[in-house]
Design a protein that fits this description.
By secondary structure, the chain is mainly beta. The protein is about 5% helix and about 45% strand. It folds into two domains: about 200 residues, Immunoglobulin-like, CATH 2.60.40.1250; about 100 residues, Immunoglobulin-like. Strands 1-6-11-12-3 form a five-stranded mixed beta sheet. The longest helix is centred in the first third of the chain and has 13 residues. The termini are far apart.
Amino acid sequence: MCGSAVLRPTAFLESPMRRPMSFELLALVLSLLIGGNAFAQFGADAPADGNRLVQIDAVFPTSKIVPGRTALLGVRFRIAPKWHIYWRNPGESGTEPRIKLELPNGFKAGPVVWPRPVIHASEWETTFGYDGEAMLFVPITAPPEIEAKTVRIGIEADWLVCKEMCLMGAGKTSIELAVAAPDEKIAPEPADPTSACARGLALIPTPLEKAPGTIAQLVLADGRPALRIEGPTGGAEKITFIPDLTPGVTLRNGVLVPATIAGDRYRILVPLEIKPGNSAGKALEVAGLVLFGNNRLDPAVEIRIPLKP
């Protein structure tokens, strides 16, 4: 018998952005559009649904799973050219992918670990997401003892994929892993640095505490709360802050904040709106990413600062 875990980030509350639609509402709207002539303007080759535009598979950092150890299961999304899916904070429209795992007894899944997104900006809206390929990671903790010699993890995902139009899609995959013997030594990291898993891990944003020379602190700007970030540019010519999903804490204006660059240093001042009553019972924090460039391979630093009650 297997358990299941639905992995999805918390909704963004009281955001100045347009609130993302639910999957259910999007599915209804899109089904009505697709039932009519929505595809006529995109040619006869337009797909009937989003299933073919995104394909998923799973990768694991090691050849075997080790009892009692936590490792990151990678769920890879391969996205058709010119289409994109969304980050956990989609921006002014869209909704993030959802992942559901079918786990063996005793296994536990943690929250999704997301790679840095890219900014998709048009004259109508600004969104954050992925094109080409994206690998989302799920921490999987194995129980201390596993009787079976192999274990299977089932993965289901659904997503919204967009270009000139948006389509719902879904897919399934699974991965079977051998179980390490009690005395077997298995390195926790991928043995091959060029493997898909290693490449995906390299795109996870660097935590603030591991970003040399970078400082982030809460300040008052014109008597109102703000987040100030300073650090080395690393040679990047365009640096941008994008907010994370933080109930009760939002940007005061807009959906992103560009940096001011002087020489080899940058500075970002992020005006904040703090409403403890909208925190949905969660601890208040300010969080987001500093993006160094707008290519999926460019680095990013994750900012996450708890706020005092």
